[in-house]
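User: Thioredoxin reductase, Melanomma pulvis-pyrius CBS 109.77:
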Amino acid sequence: MPSATTTVTANPRELYDVIIIGGSYAGLSAALTLYRATHKCLIFDSGIPRNALSTKTRLTSGWEGQDPQKMRDTSKAELEGSGLVDFIPLPVQKAKKNSDGTFEVVDSDCETWRGRKILFSTGVQEIYPELEGYAENYGTSIYYCMFCFGYEQRGSRSAGLIAVGPLAHPGHAITNAQDALKFAKCVTIYTNNNPSLAEELSKKLEGGLRVNDQKLKRLFKEQDSDDISVEFESGEKQSLSFLVHKPDLEVNTALPAQLGVECTPGLGINVIPPFNKTTVDGVYAAGDCCSPLRMIPNALSMGAFAGCGLARELPRVVREIKDQNGATKVNGSVGIAESLFIET
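Assistant: Predicted structure for Thioredoxin reductase:
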């Protein structure tokens, strides 16, 4: 049976139109699109969003600077009020596709739930480099996106970029360093004992950018200081206003693999835009788990488009739906909706 924390209205005997795995921005946006197309959704939400370290909503009109959890809670309340979206605050452990094309998932309480379609909006897991002090400062002094975090750092004395992992590439390192240079007087690219990368970068430097190829030892903060310091194996130290780095990423669930969904290492689930259908019929994805553009507006957009794609594949179902005044209406007759995909 469902646990005591399971939403009361969720019914394990029901065949939901869409099971949404992941209840943050992309999943909530998809559910909004789907319920407005009169489809019933079940959202599994572990309660740990990918941007859990972020204390402010960024790049989202109307929510700029506000608590991200408030935005998610507001959306959840709106969806629950529709009567067509149920929530279960549990992770999903297993997923399979049945011979009739429907899907079954099993939650962490061992309850089985069924749906016609599945949407993955699970986000990603960040894999930190093996560098002392990185994890403690990621999200507070180490930023992965200057569009999300740069404005608050404007006028900084100096910044650094750690050119390891995804940024150990001349083009990526220079582009992200130039982004940081909008907010700091100078930016040092730390190549961490990678002479060939340092040499290649030195050919592309322009005003305000520099390269340091010393081996990094640790990152730390001095007491009573907002700056972050870099210490090298040589013992030398440098103090900076902030650092930029993008860690390696991986899809934070094994569920896509259980369904045979194709993924690309470092990028996530493979989808076909604009509706974000995966390589398995009936399975869609949206948000950070399938896009390198990891910011709230993109997650909202991808969720909305995935919702459109899913709705066009789903049959029309006769349902009694209450309007804003509490009056009951019937949404239509039984039939299969036309699928009008424009896949590019």
